[in-house]
Amino acid sequence: MSKQYNIVWFCTDQQRWDTIHSLGNPYIHTPNLDRLVEEGVALTRAYTQSPICTPSRACFMTGRFPRSTKAIFNGNDKFSKDEKLISKLFQEQGYVCGLTGKLHLTSAEGKVEKRVDDGYTYFAYSHHPHNDWPNDGNQYQVWLREHGVKWEEIYGGKFTSMATWPPVANPGFSGKQVGVPPQYHQTTFCVEKAIEFMKQNEGHPWYININPFDPHPPLDPPQAYKDKLKVEDMPLPKYREGEMDKKPPHQQKDLLQGGQDGQAEIYGELTEYEKREHFRDYYAEIELIDDQFGRLMQYLEESGQRDNTIVIFMSDHGEMNGDHGLYWKGAYFYEGLVHVPLIISCPSIFKKGLRSDALVGLVDVAPTLLEAIGEEVPYYMQGKSFLKILTGEADPHHFRDAVYAEYYHTLKGTHENINATMYFDGRYKLVCYHGETYGELYDLSTDPDEFENLWNDPAYKELKAELIMKSYNNAVLSNMDDSMHRLYSF
Question: For residue 327, what is the DSSP state?
Fold first, then answer.
């Protein structure tokens, strides 16, 4: 392929894999994502390489594993100048590149994050919706003012600022999260600005990253979207009484103090109604995302660009949502957190209605996009292109033998002493906590909800040893860094 297809890369924040109606969730309504599934390829076993924002985003924006990019945690002051973002690679190929929403390759605490040579000439930046940055650093807040709206007057959420941690409480909080009206939502802003970018660049190849903050906590969807869903119809989290007895110490602690090392809700203190309500609010945010995504797709169709545009929908990582008695994220590698949605469509070149259950990683998206526009995958990328699955030229049931994820003291104030890696071969999931004797081992063929930790089960001793060796080899070889580009024999 050598045609310059436009690129829409829509990446939500903290959206689980099991949040799309046509892919098996009966509780949520996602007609626009359902249509994307019909018109493209749903990679139903896609996994993030980190359960936390910055390492995951550094990974899929470079096609390199988090440890190799050196962006192993949130809150880093700078991003390595040695790393080249895919947006920059597209810009070098003659594309006009833009971004709406967050980027989060470096810290955004109280300031607009430091940019690298990212290739973006259009930069409608908004890490999160709250009015936290001086000098109009949050373009979403500027956009609100242009619409004659003040954030503080329309927002009824729990926090007034998230520029520091813990966030600043809203003194007028009613006890129930109430987000801004849909027409003033940050997701709406992200899509409106993306359409503005596309209109400005019609007739020229373009690339756009659309990165809304939702459905990241705090869960504050518009009331109109809450009203579409009944709390009593929502599911309960996947939790089995006593399951934590065999789980790692930090998970046992978080069950009692709240997920994310005590920063999230305490599972045992929530009523059944509140647990269902949590799902209601989470799904309501995703239904808003779906509506705005549909608006974007409608513009592509009306402007005659749909057949010539590669559309990617995905998330950087998932959300525990009360599974295993845990909320938010941290040093966890459960399916709810590391298994993510990934749908790719381009009607003129990719298969339609294909559901691939091959194991793929988000690290593989960048090389796939480059190959799709006829460019050679750079020698330093560690991901692999799965383009032939998209075009129907390869087996849709196999790509990687296993997927791999990392957590290296990734969140400040959360599991700071934990360094862990996950190895998942499609059946067995192994989590090694480096420097510790405990770990996790699950057989998802018999225990798909990951209740039964087999790490200390004598019957699995030999298998565990075999998987530890595979995990070790995979971690070393995945992070084999050829970026110095050896050209000579000595």
Answer: -
Query: SS3 for 85?
Result: coil
Tokens 């699995």, residue located: 460
CB under 8 Å to 400, separation ≥6 — which residues? 358, 359, 360, 361, 364, 384
Closest CA to 65 of 74, 56, 73: 56
φ and ψ at 6, to 5 degrees?
-70, 155
Our measurement of the distance from residue 333's CA atom to the centroid of its chain's CA atoms, rounded to an integer in Å, reads 14
**188-193 contact pairs (CB < 8 A, 24+):** 188/292, 189/100, 189/124, 189/126, 189/139, 189/140, 189/143, 189/144, 190/100, 190/101, 190/124, 190/126, 190/292, 191/100, 191/292, 191/293, 191/295, 191/296, 192/143, 193/100, 193/124, 193/139, 193/143
Q: 244-252: list long-range contacts, CB under 8 Å, 24+ apart.
A: 244/324, 244/325, 246/452, 246/453, 246/455, 246/456, 247/324, 247/440, 247/453, 248/433, 248/436, 248/438, 248/439, 248/440, 249/438, 250/330, 250/331, 250/415, 250/418, 251/324, 251/326, 251/332
- Series of mean pLDDT values for 10-residue runs along the chain (490 residues): 85 98 98 98 98 98 97 94 97 97 93 92 95 88 95 83 75 79 97 98 96 94 96 98 98 97 96 98 98 98 97 98 98 98 98 98 98 96 98 98 97 94 98 98 98 98 98 94 91
> How far is it, in rounded angstroms, from Cα 116 to Cα 120?
10
Instruction: Please give the structure tokens belonging to residue 305.
Output: 């660009």
Distance between CA 237 and CA 340 in Å, rounded? 17
CB atoms under 10 Å from CB of 313, counted, come to 27
Alpha helices in 383-434 (DSSP H): 387-391
Q: Is this structure's pTM higher than 0.85?
A: yes
